Predict the structure.
Amino acid sequence: MKLWHGTLLGAAALALIATDASAQGVRWNDDGTVDLLLGPNYDDIVITTTREELGTLFGPDQKPFEGAEISVTVNAGGPKGGISGPLHAFRPIWEELSGGTLNIVELPFGEHYTKMMLDLRNGTGQYDAFMVGAFWYGDIAPAGYAYPIDEFMESDEYPQWSYDVMPPALRLLHHWGDTPYGVLNDADGQVLYYRKDALTDPEHQAAFKAEYGYDLPAPPATWQQLLDIARYFNGKNWDDNDPEPDSGMVLHLKVGEQGHYHFQSLSASFAITPGEKVDRYHNVYWFDPTDMTPLINSPGHVKALEFLQELHKTGPSAQVGWSLGEAWDYFLRGKAVFVFSWGDVGALCQDETRSKIKGVCAASILPASEEYYDHETGEFVQAENPQPVGNTTGGSWHGVISNFSAYPEATYSLLALMAIKPVSMWNAQHGWTGVDPGYSYQFLEPNGEAAVEDYVKAGWDPEDVKTYTQAYYDNFYADTMLTYLRIPGSFEYWDILDKNLSAAMSGDKSAKQALDDTAASWEQVTDRIGRDSQLRDYQAAIGYEG
Protein backbone atom coordinates (compact mmCIF):
# COMPACT_ATOMS: atom_id res chain seq x y z
CA MET A 1 0.00 0.00 0.00
CA LYS A 2 1.26 3.45 -0.86
CA LEU A 3 2.40 5.59 2.06
CA TRP A 4 0.52 8.82 2.28
CA HIS A 5 3.51 11.13 2.66
CA GLY A 6 3.42 11.14 6.43
CA THR A 7 -0.10 12.49 6.75
CA LEU A 8 -1.58 10.15 9.35
CA LEU A 9 -5.04 10.02 10.81
CA GLY A 10 -3.77 10.73 14.28
CA ALA A 11 -4.16 13.81 16.34
CA ALA A 12 -1.57 15.80 14.45
CA ALA A 13 -2.51 15.08 10.94
CA LEU A 14 -6.18 15.48 10.33
CA ALA A 15 -6.84 18.68 12.15
CA LEU A 16 -10.54 19.26 12.35
CA ILE A 17 -10.36 22.33 14.56
CA ALA A 18 -11.62 25.85 14.47
CA THR A 19 -9.32 28.64 13.38
CA ASP A 20 -8.47 31.50 15.70
CA ALA A 21 -9.99 33.89 13.24
CA SER A 22 -12.42 33.37 10.43
CA ALA A 23 -10.49 32.74 7.26
CA GLN A 24 -10.76 30.96 3.96
CA GLY A 25 -7.97 29.78 1.73
CA VAL A 26 -4.49 28.40 2.41
CA ARG A 27 -1.96 28.86 5.21
CA TRP A 28 1.66 27.76 4.69
CA ASN A 29 3.31 26.69 7.94
CA ASP A 30 7.01 26.72 8.81
CA ASP A 31 6.98 23.04 9.78
CA GLY A 32 6.14 21.93 6.21
CA THR A 33 2.45 21.48 6.80
CA VAL A 34 -0.25 23.35 4.94
CA ASP A 35 -3.61 24.34 6.39
CA LEU A 36 -6.64 24.32 4.11
CA LEU A 37 -9.05 26.84 5.64
CA LEU A 38 -12.68 26.19 4.80
CA GLY A 39 -13.89 29.46 6.29
CA PRO A 40 -16.93 30.58 8.28
CA ASN A 41 -19.48 28.87 6.02
CA TYR A 42 -17.96 25.56 7.09
CA ASP A 43 -17.41 26.25 10.79
CA ASP A 44 -13.89 27.58 10.16
CA ILE A 45 -12.59 24.04 9.83
CA VAL A 46 -8.89 23.52 9.18
CA ILE A 47 -7.71 20.47 7.24
CA THR A 48 -3.97 19.95 7.56
CA THR A 49 -1.88 18.34 4.85
CA THR A 50 1.77 18.52 3.75
CA ARG A 51 3.55 20.30 0.93
CA GLU A 52 4.60 16.95 -0.45
CA GLU A 53 1.02 15.71 -0.48
CA LEU A 54 -0.12 18.89 -2.26
CA GLY A 55 2.43 18.35 -5.04
CA THR A 56 5.31 20.46 -6.26
CA LEU A 57 3.19 22.61 -8.57
CA PHE A 58 1.59 24.32 -5.60
CA GLY A 59 3.49 26.75 -3.40
CA PRO A 60 3.03 30.11 -1.65
CA ASP A 61 3.83 32.17 -4.74
CA GLN A 62 3.56 29.69 -7.61
CA LYS A 63 -0.01 29.83 -8.98
CA PRO A 64 0.82 27.42 -11.84
CA PHE A 65 -2.50 27.76 -13.65
CA GLU A 66 -3.04 31.50 -13.44
CA GLY A 67 -5.61 32.58 -16.01
CA ALA A 68 -7.04 29.11 -16.57
CA GLU A 69 -10.82 28.90 -16.27
CA ILE A 70 -12.30 25.43 -15.90
CA SER A 71 -15.88 24.18 -15.67
CA VAL A 72 -16.96 21.03 -13.85
CA THR A 73 -20.45 19.54 -14.00
CA VAL A 74 -22.07 18.07 -10.92
CA ASN A 75 -25.52 17.00 -9.77
CA ALA A 76 -27.43 20.03 -8.51
CA GLY A 77 -27.35 20.35 -4.75
CA GLY A 78 -25.88 23.70 -3.79
CA PRO A 79 -23.05 24.65 -1.42
CA LYS A 80 -24.19 22.14 1.19
CA GLY A 81 -25.56 19.54 -1.20
CA GLY A 82 -24.37 16.01 -1.76
CA ILE A 83 -21.35 15.79 -4.13
CA SER A 84 -21.79 19.41 -5.21
CA GLY A 85 -21.06 20.74 -1.71
CA PRO A 86 -17.36 19.79 -1.49
CA LEU A 87 -16.65 21.53 -4.80
CA HIS A 88 -18.09 24.74 -3.38
CA ALA A 89 -16.17 24.30 -0.13
CA PHE A 90 -12.78 23.77 -1.76
CA ARG A 91 -13.18 26.14 -4.72
CA PRO A 92 -11.53 29.13 -2.93
CA ILE A 93 -8.69 26.89 -1.79
CA TRP A 94 -7.96 25.53 -5.26
CA GLU A 95 -8.27 28.99 -6.83
CA GLU A 96 -5.72 30.37 -4.36
CA LEU A 97 -3.33 27.46 -4.93
CA SER A 98 -3.63 27.40 -8.71
CA GLY A 99 -4.41 30.95 -9.74
CA GLY A 100 -7.23 29.54 -11.86
CA THR A 101 -10.99 29.99 -11.80
CA LEU A 102 -13.49 27.20 -11.19
CA ASN A 103 -17.02 27.27 -12.56
CA ILE A 104 -19.27 24.76 -10.83
CA VAL A 105 -22.04 23.78 -13.26
CA GLU A 106 -24.89 22.29 -11.25
CA LEU A 107 -27.28 20.18 -13.33
CA PRO A 108 -30.42 18.32 -12.26
CA PHE A 109 -29.74 14.58 -12.15
CA GLY A 110 -32.15 13.97 -15.03
CA GLU A 111 -30.27 16.46 -17.25
CA HIS A 112 -26.69 15.75 -16.23
CA TYR A 113 -26.05 12.76 -18.46
CA THR A 114 -27.76 14.33 -21.48
CA LYS A 115 -25.82 17.60 -21.32
CA MET A 116 -22.55 15.79 -20.68
CA MET A 117 -23.02 13.53 -23.71
CA LEU A 118 -24.09 16.44 -25.95
CA ASP A 119 -20.87 18.27 -25.09
CA LEU A 120 -18.73 15.17 -25.65
CA ARG A 121 -20.36 14.08 -28.90
CA ASN A 122 -20.00 17.58 -30.33
CA GLY A 123 -16.44 17.87 -29.05
CA THR A 124 -17.07 21.42 -27.87
CA GLY A 125 -15.08 21.21 -24.64
CA GLN A 126 -17.64 23.36 -22.86
CA TYR A 127 -17.00 21.33 -19.73
CA ASP A 128 -13.54 20.33 -18.55
CA ALA A 129 -14.62 17.56 -16.21
CA PHE A 130 -17.67 15.75 -15.00
CA MET A 131 -18.53 14.30 -11.60
CA VAL A 132 -19.83 11.11 -13.14
CA GLY A 133 -21.48 7.94 -12.01
CA ALA A 134 -19.51 4.83 -12.92
CA PHE A 135 -22.54 3.63 -14.91
CA TRP A 136 -21.75 6.31 -17.53
CA TYR A 137 -18.35 4.82 -18.36
CA GLY A 138 -19.67 2.66 -21.14
CA ASP A 139 -20.75 5.78 -23.03
CA ILE A 140 -17.63 7.86 -22.49
CA ALA A 141 -14.57 5.62 -22.23
CA PRO A 142 -14.78 3.35 -25.33
CA ALA A 143 -15.67 6.37 -27.47
CA GLY A 144 -12.48 8.17 -26.47
CA TYR A 145 -14.25 10.97 -24.63
CA ALA A 146 -12.36 10.61 -21.36
CA TYR A 147 -8.83 11.80 -20.65
CA PRO A 148 -6.47 9.12 -19.24
CA ILE A 149 -4.84 10.17 -15.98
CA ASP A 150 -2.02 7.63 -15.57
CA GLU A 151 0.74 10.14 -16.38
CA PHE A 152 -0.70 12.66 -13.94
CA MET A 153 -0.83 10.08 -11.19
CA GLU A 154 2.81 9.08 -11.72
CA SER A 155 3.99 12.68 -11.29
CA ASP A 156 4.90 14.31 -7.98
CA GLU A 157 3.73 17.66 -9.35
CA TYR A 158 0.07 17.08 -8.56
CA PRO A 159 -1.75 16.36 -5.27
CA GLN A 160 -0.90 12.81 -4.24
CA TRP A 161 -3.49 10.02 -3.98
CA SER A 162 -3.58 6.39 -5.06
CA TYR A 163 -5.83 3.57 -6.24
CA ASP A 164 -4.02 1.40 -3.70
CA VAL A 165 -6.43 2.58 -1.01
CA MET A 166 -9.42 1.15 -2.89
CA PRO A 167 -10.98 -2.29 -2.66
CA PRO A 168 -10.58 -4.08 -6.03
CA ALA A 169 -14.32 -3.81 -6.74
CA LEU A 170 -14.15 0.00 -6.56
CA ARG A 171 -10.83 0.28 -8.34
CA LEU A 172 -12.39 -1.51 -11.32
CA LEU A 173 -15.05 1.17 -11.63
CA HIS A 174 -12.46 3.93 -12.10
CA HIS A 175 -10.89 2.18 -15.08
CA TRP A 176 -11.89 1.02 -18.51
CA GLY A 177 -9.79 -2.02 -19.21
CA ASP A 178 -6.37 -1.19 -17.82
CA THR A 179 -6.63 2.56 -18.40
CA PRO A 180 -7.39 4.82 -15.40
CA TYR A 181 -9.85 7.67 -15.88
CA GLY A 182 -11.55 8.27 -12.56
CA VAL A 183 -10.32 10.42 -9.71
CA LEU A 184 -11.32 9.12 -6.29
CA ASN A 185 -14.25 10.76 -4.52
CA ASP A 186 -17.36 8.90 -3.41
CA ALA A 187 -17.35 5.14 -2.74
CA ASP A 188 -21.14 4.76 -2.60
CA GLY A 189 -22.63 1.31 -2.13
CA GLN A 190 -25.75 0.50 -0.13
CA VAL A 191 -25.93 -0.96 3.37
CA LEU A 192 -28.69 -1.63 5.89
CA TYR A 193 -29.39 0.88 8.66
CA TYR A 194 -31.42 -0.17 11.67
CA ARG A 195 -32.58 1.10 15.04
CA LYS A 196 -30.35 -0.75 17.49
CA ASP A 197 -32.46 0.28 20.47
CA ALA A 198 -35.62 -1.22 18.96
CA LEU A 199 -34.04 -4.52 17.97
CA THR A 200 -32.31 -5.01 21.33
CA ASP A 201 -35.24 -3.99 23.56
CA PRO A 202 -36.07 -6.98 25.84
CA GLU A 203 -39.84 -6.43 25.63
CA HIS A 204 -39.79 -6.38 21.82
CA GLN A 205 -37.45 -9.38 21.75
CA ALA A 206 -39.88 -11.41 23.87
CA ALA A 207 -42.94 -10.31 21.89
CA PHE A 208 -41.28 -10.97 18.56
CA LYS A 209 -40.22 -14.49 19.59
CA ALA A 210 -43.70 -15.25 20.79
CA GLU A 211 -45.15 -14.15 17.44
CA TYR A 212 -42.56 -15.51 15.00
CA GLY A 213 -41.01 -18.39 16.89
CA TYR A 214 -37.36 -17.34 16.75
CA ASP A 215 -35.06 -14.86 18.45
CA LEU A 216 -35.15 -11.30 17.14
CA PRO A 217 -31.85 -10.89 15.27
CA ALA A 218 -29.91 -7.63 15.43
CA PRO A 219 -29.12 -7.21 12.62
CA PRO A 220 -31.18 -9.58 10.45
CA ALA A 221 -29.05 -12.02 8.46
CA THR A 222 -31.63 -12.65 5.74
CA TRP A 223 -34.18 -10.60 3.85
CA GLN A 224 -36.89 -12.93 5.10
CA GLN A 225 -35.94 -12.15 8.72
CA LEU A 226 -35.94 -8.44 7.92
CA LEU A 227 -39.48 -8.67 6.52
CA ASP A 228 -40.68 -10.41 9.68
CA ILE A 229 -39.12 -7.71 11.84
CA ALA A 230 -40.49 -4.89 9.69
CA ARG A 231 -43.97 -6.42 9.86
CA TYR A 232 -43.71 -6.78 13.63
CA PHE A 233 -42.81 -3.13 14.22
CA ASN A 234 -44.99 -1.55 11.52
CA GLY A 235 -47.99 0.31 12.91
CA LYS A 236 -46.75 0.22 16.49
CA ASN A 237 -45.83 3.40 18.30
CA TRP A 238 -42.48 1.95 19.36
CA ASP A 239 -40.52 5.21 19.18
CA ASP A 240 -41.11 8.02 21.68
CA ASN A 241 -40.21 10.89 19.35
CA ASP A 242 -43.88 11.55 18.62
CA PRO A 243 -47.30 10.03 19.45
CA GLU A 244 -47.93 8.67 15.92
CA PRO A 245 -47.52 5.02 14.85
CA ASP A 246 -44.15 4.16 13.31
CA SER A 247 -43.01 1.99 10.40
CA GLY A 248 -40.94 -1.07 9.75
CA MET A 249 -39.15 -0.08 6.53
CA VAL A 250 -38.87 3.18 4.64
CA LEU A 251 -37.92 3.31 0.94
CA HIS A 252 -37.41 5.97 -1.71
CA LEU A 253 -39.30 4.77 -4.76
CA LYS A 254 -40.12 7.86 -6.83
CA VAL A 255 -39.20 7.60 -10.51
CA GLY A 256 -36.00 9.48 -11.20
CA GLU A 257 -34.95 9.43 -7.53
CA GLN A 258 -32.66 6.39 -7.68
CA GLY A 259 -35.32 4.03 -6.34
CA HIS A 260 -34.25 1.32 -8.76
CA TYR A 261 -31.09 0.94 -6.68
CA HIS A 262 -33.27 -0.46 -3.90
CA PHE A 263 -34.36 -3.20 -6.23
CA GLN A 264 -30.83 -3.90 -7.43
CA SER A 265 -29.53 -4.11 -3.88
CA LEU A 266 -32.31 -6.38 -2.67
CA SER A 267 -32.61 -8.59 -5.74
CA ALA A 268 -28.90 -9.37 -6.04
CA SER A 269 -28.92 -12.27 -3.57
CA PHE A 270 -32.16 -13.64 -5.10
CA ALA A 271 -30.99 -13.43 -8.72
CA ILE A 272 -27.22 -14.02 -8.75
CA THR A 273 -25.92 -17.57 -8.80
CA PRO A 274 -22.71 -17.50 -6.76
CA GLY A 275 -19.56 -19.10 -8.11
CA GLU A 276 -15.80 -18.82 -8.25
CA LYS A 277 -15.70 -16.83 -11.50
CA VAL A 278 -17.84 -14.84 -13.91
CA ASP A 279 -19.26 -17.15 -16.56
CA ARG A 280 -22.58 -17.66 -18.33
CA TYR A 281 -24.37 -18.75 -15.17
CA HIS A 282 -22.40 -17.42 -12.21
CA ASN A 283 -21.99 -13.90 -10.88
CA VAL A 284 -24.15 -12.39 -13.61
CA TYR A 285 -27.14 -10.14 -13.01
CA TRP A 286 -28.00 -8.01 -16.03
CA PHE A 287 -27.60 -9.98 -19.26
CA ASP A 288 -26.54 -13.39 -20.49
CA PRO A 289 -22.87 -12.69 -21.27
CA THR A 290 -22.95 -14.92 -24.35
CA ASP A 291 -25.70 -13.19 -26.31
CA MET A 292 -27.04 -10.17 -24.34
CA THR A 293 -30.38 -11.79 -23.53
CA PRO A 294 -31.77 -9.82 -20.56
CA LEU A 295 -31.78 -11.62 -17.21
CA ILE A 296 -33.83 -8.89 -15.54
CA ASN A 297 -37.04 -10.95 -15.82
CA SER A 298 -35.51 -14.18 -14.54
CA PRO A 299 -37.45 -15.99 -11.78
CA GLY A 300 -34.94 -14.68 -9.22
CA HIS A 301 -35.61 -11.07 -10.15
CA VAL A 302 -39.37 -11.64 -10.22
CA LYS A 303 -39.36 -13.20 -6.76
CA ALA A 304 -37.24 -10.31 -5.49
CA LEU A 305 -39.68 -7.72 -6.86
CA GLU A 306 -42.61 -9.58 -5.30
CA PHE A 307 -40.67 -9.50 -2.05
CA LEU A 308 -40.07 -5.75 -2.39
CA GLN A 309 -43.80 -5.24 -2.91
CA GLU A 310 -44.43 -6.94 0.42
CA LEU A 311 -41.65 -5.03 2.15
CA HIS A 312 -43.13 -1.78 0.86
CA LYS A 313 -46.30 -2.52 2.86
CA THR A 314 -44.36 -2.17 6.12
CA GLY A 315 -43.89 1.55 5.54
CA PRO A 316 -45.99 4.57 4.55
CA SER A 317 -48.03 4.05 1.38
CA ALA A 318 -46.89 7.50 0.22
CA GLN A 319 -43.27 6.37 -0.07
CA VAL A 320 -43.87 5.14 -3.61
CA GLY A 321 -43.66 8.83 -4.51
CA TRP A 322 -40.91 9.81 -2.07
CA SER A 323 -37.54 11.17 -3.04
CA LEU A 324 -34.31 9.95 -1.55
CA GLY A 325 -34.17 12.85 0.91
CA GLU A 326 -37.78 12.36 2.07
CA ALA A 327 -37.11 8.71 2.91
CA TRP A 328 -33.90 9.56 4.73
CA ASP A 329 -35.56 12.25 6.83
CA TYR A 330 -38.33 9.85 7.84
CA PHE A 331 -35.74 7.42 9.19
CA LEU A 332 -33.67 10.19 10.79
CA ARG A 333 -36.76 11.41 12.66
CA GLY A 334 -37.02 7.97 14.25
CA LYS A 335 -40.07 6.86 12.29
CA ALA A 336 -38.79 3.55 10.85
CA VAL A 337 -36.77 0.60 12.10
CA PHE A 338 -34.99 0.08 8.77
CA VAL A 339 -33.76 1.84 5.68
CA PHE A 340 -31.24 0.53 3.20
CA SER A 341 -29.44 3.18 1.24
CA TRP A 342 -26.16 5.00 0.68
CA GLY A 343 -23.53 5.83 3.25
CA ASP A 344 -24.90 9.36 3.63
CA VAL A 345 -27.52 8.05 6.05
CA GLY A 346 -25.00 6.84 8.62
CA ALA A 347 -23.22 10.18 8.60
CA LEU A 348 -26.48 12.15 8.66
CA CYS A 349 -27.55 10.20 11.76
CA GLN A 350 -24.82 12.14 13.58
CA ASP A 351 -26.27 15.53 12.63
CA GLU A 352 -28.44 16.41 15.62
CA THR A 353 -30.06 19.30 13.74
CA ARG A 354 -31.57 16.71 11.40
CA SER A 355 -31.41 13.42 13.32
CA LYS A 356 -33.10 12.17 16.49
CA ILE A 357 -31.34 8.81 16.45
CA LYS A 358 -27.66 9.54 17.01
CA GLY A 359 -26.25 6.78 19.20
CA VAL A 360 -28.81 4.15 18.15
CA CYS A 361 -28.20 4.23 14.38
CA ALA A 362 -26.48 0.94 13.56
CA ALA A 363 -25.49 -0.50 10.18
CA SER A 364 -24.68 -3.83 8.58
CA ILE A 365 -24.05 -5.32 5.17
CA LEU A 366 -27.32 -5.98 3.34
CA PRO A 367 -29.00 -9.27 4.25
CA ALA A 368 -28.91 -12.39 2.10
CA SER A 369 -31.82 -14.29 0.60
CA GLU A 370 -32.55 -17.73 2.01
CA GLU A 371 -32.91 -18.96 -1.56
CA TYR A 372 -31.44 -17.93 -4.90
CA TYR A 373 -32.14 -18.76 -8.53
CA ASP A 374 -29.66 -21.11 -10.19
CA HIS A 375 -29.32 -19.95 -13.80
CA GLU A 376 -27.70 -23.22 -14.83
CA THR A 377 -30.36 -25.60 -13.47
CA GLY A 378 -33.31 -23.23 -13.80
CA GLU A 379 -34.36 -23.92 -10.21
CA PHE A 380 -34.33 -22.14 -6.88
CA VAL A 381 -31.74 -23.35 -4.38
CA GLN A 382 -32.12 -23.21 -0.62
CA ALA A 383 -28.92 -21.68 0.69
CA GLU A 384 -27.44 -23.75 3.53
CA ASN A 385 -25.56 -20.70 4.75
CA PRO A 386 -27.08 -17.60 3.09
CA GLN A 387 -24.32 -15.26 1.98
CA PRO A 388 -24.85 -11.55 1.33
CA VAL A 389 -23.95 -10.03 -2.02
CA GLY A 390 -21.56 -7.10 -1.95
CA ASN A 391 -23.32 -4.18 -3.52
CA THR A 392 -20.98 -2.57 -6.00
CA THR A 393 -23.45 0.09 -7.03
CA GLY A 394 -20.58 2.32 -6.08
CA GLY A 395 -17.63 4.25 -7.39
CA SER A 396 -19.90 7.18 -7.94
CA TRP A 397 -19.57 10.06 -8.03
CA HIS A 398 -16.03 10.77 -9.13
CA GLY A 399 -14.16 13.09 -11.43
CA VAL A 400 -13.47 12.33 -15.09
CA ILE A 401 -11.67 14.82 -17.34
CA SER A 402 -13.03 15.55 -20.82
CA ASN A 403 -10.70 14.67 -23.66
CA PHE A 404 -11.72 18.02 -25.14
CA SER A 405 -10.67 20.09 -22.14
CA ALA A 406 -8.36 23.01 -22.91
CA TYR A 407 -6.87 22.69 -19.42
CA PRO A 408 -6.53 19.00 -18.50
CA GLU A 409 -3.56 19.65 -16.19
CA ALA A 410 -5.37 22.33 -14.20
CA THR A 411 -8.52 20.23 -14.10
CA TYR A 412 -6.66 17.21 -12.78
CA SER A 413 -5.03 19.32 -10.06
CA LEU A 414 -8.49 20.25 -8.78
CA LEU A 415 -9.83 16.69 -8.82
CA ALA A 416 -6.65 15.37 -7.22
CA LEU A 417 -6.83 17.99 -4.47
CA MET A 418 -10.29 16.64 -3.62
CA ALA A 419 -8.86 13.10 -3.55
CA ILE A 420 -5.98 13.52 -1.09
CA LYS A 421 -6.36 11.58 2.12
CA PRO A 422 -7.20 14.36 4.64
CA VAL A 423 -9.77 15.96 2.30
CA SER A 424 -11.39 12.64 1.40
CA MET A 425 -11.51 11.66 5.07
CA TRP A 426 -13.13 14.94 6.04
CA ASN A 427 -15.74 14.54 3.31
CA ALA A 428 -16.60 11.01 4.46
CA GLN A 429 -17.08 12.21 8.04
CA HIS A 430 -19.80 14.71 7.09
CA GLY A 431 -23.09 13.42 5.72
CA TRP A 432 -24.05 16.52 3.78
CA THR A 433 -21.08 16.02 1.42
CA GLY A 434 -22.58 12.86 -0.08
CA VAL A 435 -19.16 11.19 0.11
CA ASP A 436 -19.35 7.66 1.48
CA PRO A 437 -16.52 5.53 2.90
CA GLY A 438 -14.77 2.82 0.96
CA TYR A 439 -11.04 3.49 1.23
CA SER A 440 -8.57 1.86 3.57
CA TYR A 441 -7.87 4.97 5.63
CA GLN A 442 -11.62 5.41 6.28
CA PHE A 443 -12.10 1.95 7.83
CA LEU A 444 -11.37 1.41 11.51
CA GLU A 445 -8.44 -0.67 12.63
CA PRO A 446 -7.77 -3.56 12.05
CA ASN A 447 -9.67 -3.35 8.73
CA GLY A 448 -8.09 -0.01 7.90
CA GLU A 449 -6.07 2.86 9.29
CA ALA A 450 -8.62 4.97 11.14
CA ALA A 451 -9.29 5.11 14.85
CA VAL A 452 -12.68 5.64 16.47
CA GLU A 453 -11.40 8.96 17.84
CA ASP A 454 -10.87 10.27 14.30
CA TYR A 455 -14.63 10.11 13.80
CA VAL A 456 -15.58 11.12 17.35
CA LYS A 457 -13.67 14.39 16.87
CA ALA A 458 -15.90 15.04 13.88
CA GLY A 459 -19.04 14.54 15.99
CA TRP A 460 -19.74 10.80 15.60
CA ASP A 461 -21.12 8.51 18.27
CA PRO A 462 -18.44 5.86 18.81
CA GLU A 463 -20.80 2.88 18.62
CA ASP A 464 -22.53 4.18 15.49
CA VAL A 465 -19.24 4.57 13.63
CA LYS A 466 -18.06 1.08 14.55
CA THR A 467 -20.99 -0.65 12.85
CA TYR A 468 -21.05 1.90 10.00
CA THR A 469 -17.47 1.41 8.88
CA GLN A 470 -17.67 -2.37 9.42
CA ALA A 471 -20.76 -2.52 7.21
CA TYR A 472 -18.95 -0.75 4.41
CA TYR A 473 -15.88 -2.91 4.79
CA ASP A 474 -17.99 -6.07 4.61
CA ASN A 475 -19.87 -4.62 1.65
CA PHE A 476 -16.82 -3.97 -0.49
CA TYR A 477 -14.99 -7.19 0.40
CA ALA A 478 -17.84 -9.69 0.03
CA ASP A 479 -17.16 -12.93 -1.84
CA THR A 480 -20.00 -12.31 -4.31
CA MET A 481 -20.63 -8.90 -5.90
CA LEU A 482 -23.39 -7.17 -7.79
CA THR A 483 -21.36 -6.10 -10.80
CA TYR A 484 -22.11 -2.58 -11.97
CA LEU A 485 -23.74 -2.06 -15.36
CA ARG A 486 -21.25 0.02 -17.37
CA ILE A 487 -22.06 -0.25 -21.06
CA PRO A 488 -23.33 2.21 -23.68
CA GLY A 489 -26.94 2.99 -22.92
CA SER A 490 -26.76 2.11 -19.21
CA PHE A 491 -28.68 5.27 -18.36
CA GLU A 492 -31.45 4.25 -20.79
CA TYR A 493 -31.59 0.66 -19.55
CA TRP A 494 -31.95 1.89 -15.99
CA ASP A 495 -34.56 4.50 -16.88
CA ILE A 496 -36.71 1.76 -18.41
CA LEU A 497 -36.28 -0.40 -15.32
CA ASP A 498 -37.04 2.52 -13.00
CA LYS A 499 -40.37 3.29 -14.70
CA ASN A 500 -41.49 -0.34 -14.74
CA LEU A 501 -40.53 -0.81 -11.11
CA SER A 502 -42.66 2.21 -10.23
CA ALA A 503 -45.59 0.66 -12.08
CA ALA A 504 -45.16 -2.53 -10.07
CA MET A 505 -44.84 -0.74 -6.73
CA SER A 506 -47.93 1.39 -7.39
CA GLY A 507 -49.94 -1.69 -8.38
CA ASP A 508 -50.34 -0.85 -12.06
CA LYS A 509 -48.39 -3.95 -13.13
CA SER A 510 -47.58 -7.29 -11.59
CA ALA A 511 -43.95 -7.96 -10.76
CA LYS A 512 -43.62 -10.39 -13.66
CA GLN A 513 -45.29 -8.06 -16.17
CA ALA A 514 -43.12 -5.12 -15.09
CA LEU A 515 -39.91 -7.10 -15.57
CA ASP A 516 -41.08 -8.79 -18.79
CA ASP A 517 -41.81 -5.33 -20.19
CA THR A 518 -38.37 -4.17 -19.02
CA ALA A 519 -36.67 -7.09 -20.77
CA ALA A 520 -38.56 -6.49 -24.03
CA SER A 521 -37.57 -2.80 -24.06
CA TRP A 522 -33.98 -3.69 -23.21
CA GLU A 523 -33.82 -5.95 -26.25
CA GLN A 524 -34.86 -3.00 -28.42
CA VAL A 525 -32.16 -0.78 -26.91
CA THR A 526 -29.52 -3.46 -27.43
CA ASP A 527 -30.51 -3.99 -31.07
CA ARG A 528 -30.54 -0.25 -31.75
CA ILE A 529 -27.07 0.33 -30.29
CA GLY A 530 -25.69 -2.90 -31.77
CA ARG A 531 -25.83 -6.32 -30.16
CA ASP A 532 -22.30 -7.36 -31.09
CA SER A 533 -20.69 -4.19 -29.75
CA GLN A 534 -22.86 -4.27 -26.60
CA LEU A 535 -21.87 -7.86 -25.97
CA ARG A 536 -18.20 -6.98 -26.31
CA ASP A 537 -18.47 -4.04 -23.93
CA TYR A 538 -20.60 -5.97 -21.44
CA GLN A 539 -18.11 -8.83 -21.26
CA ALA A 540 -15.29 -6.36 -20.70
CA ALA A 541 -17.23 -4.42 -18.06
CA ILE A 542 -18.08 -7.46 -15.89
CA GLY A 543 -14.84 -9.40 -16.38
CA TYR A 544 -16.51 -12.28 -18.23
CA GLU A 545 -14.26 -15.33 -18.32
CA GLY A 546 -16.37 -17.68 -20.45
In short: The mean pLDDT is 92. Residues 440 and 448 are 5 Å apart (CA to CA). Residues 511-529 form the longest helix (19 residues).
